[in-house]
Each structure stands twice: as structure tokens, then as C-alpha cells.
Design a protein that fits this description.
The chain is of the alpha/beta class. The chain is about 35% helix and about 20% strand. The protein has 11 helices and 13 strands. α9 runs antiparallel to α10. The chain has a single domain, classed as UDP-N-acetylmuramoyl-L-alanine:D-glutamate ligase (3-Layer(aba) Sandwich). α4 links the parallel β8 and β9. Bound molecules: alpha-D-ribofuranose and sodium ion (NA). Alpha-D-ribofuranose binds next to β2, α1, β7 and α9.
Length: about 325
């Protein structure tokens, strides 16, 4: 049974590791590697390796990238529901510097053609599912339709509003029971949708009460989890929906690991969070966040995006159950 349904992108990532990110006009040397990525696929792999039944809804081209997605989904036991696209499979060009920081260019390709009809085509998809997880690397109407279908079916909706420059609407955001922006995405959504001017760089330093108030403005009836990289995570719940926690808002510190590649760390967090929620919905929300933090921390010690996702038993071995 598929407990987590991920709707989103698959990309073939082309990664260059370099001492520093290239400046405009510069030509520099780096070490090249290629591997599977795309926020959707990374999150699906994370959920599957976290140990819950996972399905992945995406669009693939009729090419080597599409074949790779099929092969890797099967290897991780992911139920793939791929729409055939006349566009090439999605790609990403990624530079990673010596400190593990990255910048990314996306070629959406097939991801840009994923249709709402494809998501709705399988009436069995949501039967028995607990969490639907989506991001914004696919057409916004498709993501909106997927969240609405899940809501109708009583499946919890988790929206990772990434990347920061993706189109969105307040209506879309409010289809989420749970919204997981990083600080850049959080600032962008506040500026765009509720007229709050906040600098991304200032988010982590805001006090809890101010952050909570901003989260409440953005998503009055849902929980917001703002991921703050190496600083950890800020959680904000509506008063009426504490999800087993004792407080409406709190921080959870990051695990200390020696990060060598943070590509896909946010995806690791989201996939693991969805999996943990699906596996043990009765647990306090803070426990799910702690698990997702640990899972994401381990993913940063390895190169690559989807390939870097740890497994449930590795997380337990490293941090205890
Ligand atoms: O979040 C990381 C991912 O963003 C990469 O795998 C790349 O494909 C882009 O989608
Ligand atoms: Na990584």
C-alpha cells in the first residue's frame, strides 16, 4: 500500500563540484558527476528509504533520462505513475562549492507538461494514502488539482513551496495542511501573498513570536515548518491544531554533521517528514520533525541528490531510535 504519494519532478542532475561557485564571465574547472534528482523524485526516494510505501506521479520523456527514472524507482520500490511526455526528461545543472553550497539551473522539459488529468486518472491512487506531498517544479494548476483531490479524499496535504521563484497563489498555499518553506521561500511567499516585507537573511534571527505571527498570516489553518538550514527548523501550528505538540510554536535545532553536499537536503527533510507522519500519525509533531532533521543531516554527508538519501535503519543507527 502506498502511504505517501509524491507528485512532482524528475530531473537528470548534471553536477560540477568546484572550489568556488563560478562568477559571471568566469571559466573554471570542476569535477563532473551525473545522477538522479528533481525535487519530486528526491522526496519520493527519501520517503521510500524512510520505510513507507511510496508512489511517485510525474512526467517523463521517451529518452535515457526517462528510462533511468523507471529503473531507479523500481530499485527503491517506488510505485511509479509516469505520464508520457513529448518533451525531453527534465534536467538540472548544479554547481557545488567546497563548502557544500550550490546553485542550480533547471530545464523543466517533461516536468512542465505534467497534467492535472494524469493525477486524477487513477482513482485508486489516493485510496489508503495518508500524506500527499508536492513541490512547485511542476505546473501550478497540476499541483493545485493534486492537493485539492487529496483534501477531498481526506489525505493530509504537505506542500514544499520550492523553488522560491515558482509561481504560486494564496489559494494554492491554503490547500496545504502543512507548508515547509526554507527561509528564502518563506520571505518570498510573505512578500508576494500577504504583503509582509521580510528579508530572507533576517528570517532565522526573528524571535519566535514574530515568526509565529507571520506563519499564521500565511497559513491561518495549517502548520508551517520553516527550514533554516544549519540553524534547524521553526514550527508554527494554529491554536486549534497542535498535532500532539505542547506549544503552538518552537524551534528544533539541526543535527551536527559535516556536510559535503547539501543538494537535496530540503528534499530529504520533506520526504522523511511525510514518511514519518504517515507511519505514526499519533506521535507528537516534534518527533516527526526531529526524525526529518536527522534524515536530512545524513543526506548532506553524501554526494548527489536522490542517491544521497539514507535509509531508516541508518538514521536509527546513527542517532538512536
Ligand atoms: O532540490 C534539489 C533538486 O533541485 C535537484 O535534484 C535538482 O534536480 C533540482 O530539482
Ligand atoms: Na547530498
Amino acid at each position: 500500500m502506498n502511504s505517501v504519494i509524491v507528485v512532482g519532478s524528475f530531473n537528470v542532475d548534471h553536477v560540477w563540484r568546484c572550489a568556488e561557485l563560478p562568477a559571471v564571465g568566469a571559466t573554471i574547472a570542476g569535477q563532473y558527476a551525473t545522477g538522479p534528482g528533481g525535487k519530486g523524485f528526491n522526496q519520493a526516494v527519501a520517503a521510500a528509504r524512510a520505510g513507507v510505501g511510496t508512489a511517485f506521479v510525474c512526467a517523463l520523456g521517451d529518452d535515457a533520462g526517462g528510462a533511468l527514472a523507471r529503473q531507479l524507482a523500481a530499485a527503491d520500490g517506488i510505485g511509479l505513475r509516469a505520464e508520457a511526455s513529448d518533451q525531453p526528461t527534465g534536467t538540472a545543472g548544479i554547481y557545488v562549492d567546497a563548502r557544500g553550497r550550490n546553485c542550480i539551473v533547471i530545464g523543466a522539459g517533461a516536468n512542465g507538461t505534467l497534467g492535472a488529468a494524469h493525477v486524477a486518472a487513477d482513482p485508486e491512487l489516493l485510496a489508503g494514502a495518508r500524506v500527499l506531498l508536492a513541490q512547485l517544479e511542476s505546473p501550478v494548476e497540476t499541483i493545485e488539482a493534486a492537493l485539492a483531490l487529496a483534501r477531498e479524499a481526506g489525505v493530509a496535504t504537505l506542500l514544499n513551496p520550492a523553488p522560491a521563484n515558482a509561481p504560486s497563489s494564496i489559494g494554492l498555499l491554503r490547500l496545504a495542511d502543512l507548508l515547509t518553506p526554507n527561509e528564502t521561500e518563506f520571505a518570498a511567499l510573505l512578500n508576494r501573498h500577504v504583503g509582509e516585507r521580510v528579508e530572507a537573511e533576517a528570517v532565522a534571527a526573528l524571535d519566535g513570536a514574530s515568526l509565529h505571527a507571520l506563519c499564521r498570516k500565511l497559513l491561518p489553518h495549517g502548520s508551517v515548518v520553516v527550514t533554516l538550514g544549519s540553524v534547524g527548523v521553526f514550527v508554527s501550528h494554529p491554536d486549534e491544531q497542535l498535532r500532539g505538540d505542547a506549544q503552538t510554536h518552537y524551534r528544533v535545532g539541526a543535527e551536527s554533521v559535516s556536510a559535503s553536499d547539501t543538494t537535496g537536503a530540503g528534499d530529504a527533510f520533506n520526504g522523511a517528514l511525510a514518511a514519518s507522519l504517515a507511519r505514526a500519525p499519533e506521535q507528537p509533531f516534534a518527533a516527526h520533525v526531529r526524525y526529518a532533521n536527522r534524515f536530512a543531516a545524513l543526506s548532506t554527508e553524501r554526494a548527489g541528490a536522490a542517491a544521497a538519501m539514507p535509509r531508516h535503519d541508518e538514521v536509527q543507527e546513527r542517532f538512536g531510535a
